[in-house]
Amino acid sequence: MTSKERLLQEADALRDLARHTRRVIELASSDNQKKSLRRHADDFDKQAGLLESDAANARTMPQVRARLS
Description:
Blueprint: H1 3-25, H2 31-57
């Protein structure tokens, strides 16, 4: 797996966390909890965006396999 693929997988996982966190907001009982969860979801999305940007700028390098003699 290339570093570009790895970055995109991590970004996807963070987007999933953001979505799940936003669903949990509906279950939160206090406004403070909702605000905190919303901040976390926004942070996950921001980090995912940074990883996606890094992936867009990453060069895809072919993986070199060791030859068995």
